[in-house]
Amino acid sequence: LAERSNLAGVRHILLVLSGKGGVGKSTISTELALALRSAGKRVGILDVDLCGPSIPRMLRVQDSAVHQCDSGWVPVFVGQDKAIALMSIGFLLERPDDAVVWRGPKKNALIKQFVTDVAWGDLDFLIVDTPPGTSDEHISTVEALRPYQLLGAILVTTPQ
Amino acid sequence: AACQGCPNQGLCAAGAAGPDPAEAAELRARLRAVRHTVLVLSGKGGVGKSTFSALLAHGLAADETKQVALLDIDICGPSIPKIMGLEGEQVHQSGSGWSPVYVEENLGVMSVGFLLSSPDDAVIWRGPKKNGLIKQFLRDVDWGEVDYLIVDTPPGTSDEHLSIVQYLSATHIDGAVIVTTPQEVSLQDVRKEINFCRKVKLPIIGVVENMSGFVCPKCKNESQIFPPTTGGAEKMCQNLNVSLLGKVPLDPQIGKSCDRGQSFLAEAPESPATLSYRNIIQRIQEYCEQQHFKEEKIM
Known about the structure:
The complex is a heterodimer of chains A (160) and B (299). Chain A has helices at 25-38, 55-58, 104-116, 136-145; strands spanning 10-17, 43-47, 67-69, 72-74, 76-78, 84-88, 123-129, 150-155. Chain A has 160 residues and is an alpha/beta fold. In chain A, strands 5-6-2-7-1-8 form a 6-stranded mixed sheet, covered by helices on one side. In chain A, strands 3-4 form a two-stranded antiparallel ribbon. The relative contact order of chain A is 0.30. Chain B has 10 helices and 12 strands.
């Protein structure tokens, strides 16, 4: 019996990238998700910034926890209508100020899990928010998403 | 393609965790002539680490009797060459190692930016390769006698940060200066960085709150562009028992000076931001000198 991949029900996958930190990737990811939800779409956000996960606070779900189900992790559903699904390392920390001091290989392992082991269900859009740089998180995310068709990347910058 | 221009392509190692005893000895020898080392950290990106590192270097180097070294270990996004007006410069090798690029006679700089064949080349490296280059920066650069080694870091708490702390354990780090902006989304990441410092026993010299208010040059009204909704760095420092070194207001001239590779302190000596920076730099100097004095007393 072939297992249905957790991303099989996701229609479009978007990466939000920059290279530079502090330009508004997480902010844009969040606003984009909210705008798509207003337009009646089902949206998920995958926050692969392991050292500085900002999305939970931006959606006011920083005190939520994630649970396991048969197909993997259940994402946190945001809002009354639960129309935005979110996965972030922020939900896995014992305390919000705990530093995630991991080297590349450990980060890569979690990112692979985040991509393949979250039970997203049926989504119109999955937005992937990334940390600054062009390193482990980015390489691992793109590699793990390779079997699925990526819609593309949005690049965020500031003017200087 | 990312290795092009690097003097040590063949030797670039996929280094493991900390230095082995032989390497530690090598690093100790190379860094023996460094009197003070300051790490500039954040956790959050885009808060002004590189800007601050550059101005700290300029500020300290204003005293011509001091030798200052600025090491940029942001491998993916090296901003220091542009901010210091050194874009396009190359690293030269000599018998005694790699030569830093000098802005002034007493201010030398090293960055991966100098090793790229084109400024837009992406350095798409995983952790181990980044660690290898950082080790090389410490082991192979001929800094000479240095009064202040300032290390600019990328955002986060990962390979670069672990590695620099581990490699520099061969010598002595005076402490870390942590940069933030006033809003909670930044402070959230900065608290993690403070915990990182405590975890690796890195002393915290203090926190700098950047982009703290904007004074309109025309009407002189002050606005909070990044409102401190949870009390800003001040409250966080109180809660975590860490020193607040100062607050620096937003000044559009800062970004311009950085883009043009000029020292903001020199270009806008009258700006309130310059005054803040100078006060903070002085406090850092005093902290370092006190440490040295304490050590001499013990000896």
